Amino acid sequence: MQEEVFALLGDKNLSRTPCRVEMLKILLESGSALPETEIRSKLPQHFDRTTVYRTLRSFLEQDVIHSIPLEGGDVRYAVTRNKERKSSQFHAHFYCESCSSVYCLSRARFEPPEMPEGFVAAGYDVLVNGKCRKCN
Amino acid sequence: MQEEVFALLGDKNLSRTPCRVEMLKILLESGSALPETEIRSKLPQHFDRTTVYRTLRSFLEQDVIHSIPLEGGDVRYAVTRNKERKSSQFHAHFYCESCSSVYCLSRARFEPPEMPEGFVAAGYDVLVNGKCRKCN
DNA sequence: AAAATCTTTGCAACATTGTTGCAAAATTAA
DNA sequence: TTAATTTTGCAACAATGTTGCAAAGATTTT
Question: What CATH number is given for A2-135 in this structure?
Answer without folding.
Answer: 1.10.10.10
